[in-house]
Amino acid sequence: MTEELVIDGAVSLEIQEDGEVDLDVMVDGDPxxxxxxYPPAYAGATTVIPTEQTQTLATEGLMLSEDVTIxxxxxxxxxxxxxxxxxxxxxxxxxxxAAVDVxxxxxxxxxxxxxxxxSAQEITPDNDYYGLAExxxxxxxxxxxxxxxxxRSGSDLSAxxxxxxxxxxxxxxxxTKSVTQxxxxxxxxxxxxxxxxxxxxxxxxxxxxxxxTGGTKNGTxxxxxxxxxxxxxxSISANGTGIDVTNxAAVDVAVPAPAPSLQDKTxxxxxxxxxxxxxxxxxxxxxxxxEVSITVNKxxxxxxxxxxxxSITANGTGIDVKAYEYADVAVPSGSPNLQTKSxxxxxxxxxxxxxxxxxxxxxxxxxxxxxxxxxxxxxxxxxxxISGSSATVSTGTNTLTLTKTVSVTPSVTTAGYVSxxxxxxxxxxxxxxxxxxxxSDLSAxxxxxxxxxxxxxxxxxxxxxxxxxxxxxxxxxxxxNHSVSVTPKVTNSAGYISGSTKTGTAVTVxxxxxxxxxxxxxxxxTYDVTNLAELVVNVSGGGGTSxxxxxxxxxxxxxxxxxxxxxxxxxxxxxxxYDVYWSAFRSNTSSSYTYATQLYxxxxxxxxxxxTWSNHVQNNHLSNVSLAANQKxxxxxxxxxxxxxxxxxxxxxxxxx
Length: 657
What we know:
This protein is mostly beta strands. The protein is 1% helix and 41% strand. The longest helix has 4 residues, at 226-229.
């Protein structure tokens, strides 16, 4: 503290806290010319300390007119002393004290747990607590939906036509709904009624309502044959060319003629090792054949029936075995020099291949022992960066699996402190939000509409794409073998369709498109002209007739015990009614065995099998056998022994009636 004393406005005296005195004197009344005056040292003391009593400082010998009086320290000034102890929060009078010791205990704070509800909650400490140290807020259940919001799922979605509706409410996961799956029908082609030797093919298709993937579909083609469009028989009674038979199925050629001049002939055949075939025709000057007599001689004596077995025990050339059926060759041989070998292999990651052969001086190998060592063992070590007490590492044959479990506990923590003596309050506000959705969030892919998870405040809807039902067409193919296929086709675009039946433009097929070519007929008769466009009739001699005769010699012998072995076979060149002849030869006449032959026409047995023989020979004749052009006829044979004895290839002859 500093005390300043001003004397007559000219002298200023300052007494510092340490008792030092500063004296300033103003010269000539100029306040700006104060100059410090340094008096001589005071004889009694150089420092004056204020006390509770008044003190006088003598100024004798100094440049002062009177003594300086130092007043006592005012009573309001005190000297604090001692230390006050404080143990509770409050307001205290510490005027008399130099210091205080504050020792207030830590406040009692409470920890609370809160479960979220749909209403706001204010969390406060209980009585006797100053505040809240911590508030643990439990996590809201991932499946929780407020009471005022409807919980929804994919089953709540509905589809009407091509539109899917999503009701208002909360969807905890994405939901999907597909519109009705439609069916894009396969187009068909319907054949109409033949009229005027032509027919129309009409394409149509029926689709069912719903979503279709689109694309092109081909139906099954409808085949139209010439035989369907031609009909009736055209009568031809005179020779001619370019006769139009386009729309006819047959022609009846009946050109009048005088009675034909027919020739009878006789033919004799001797069996040989080669097949014999001959066409028997009338000589010049005859219109045709009348009767043909055919004789087949017995098999020549130089042909033998081999039997028995010849034993051969030594090497040789030119060994005669003509009389034998079998040869038993048993020529002794020396023992080969064989080697035994062993091989050892260790599995690697690459394939190993080695040819094991005998060493020089050996004829071959008697035994090869192969040893394959066990697969090398190994281990898999988990890297240090993924190991630890909370991680589990497991190894398989070709795998390394790391499993690490992490526990996560969601919480909200807050703390509070109240400095006063009255317990305070601390509150926690809880809130949550969900995605708000609308129609713009819906997406369509194909027939399916997807609603993403979230809250829909009002119903939302989304329509899938609209499709297009194509009009079917019918395409006429290339004529082949006097027929044509008409194929229906339709192309649809992907999307939702209403479903209907659509009919396209019909395609017409005429008989003239399917028939072609020309044939010449030189004999009267009825002919199939289904596939012909034209006919040339040139019946010579006024229209005579000729008989067809065919002969074939079989080339195989029969050893089967069932009627399955073919002895002779021919293809009939002309349709008609025939006499059929065949002869056969057997190698043995023993009555202990059965030998038989039978005629087959077109793959089916004709008549009964014949088991009657005259010594080694059997002759057969069947009358009035109806045969078609290009039809196959065969003679089958069987013998009950099954081997060694044979039925040799027969001769087959047909003569048209």
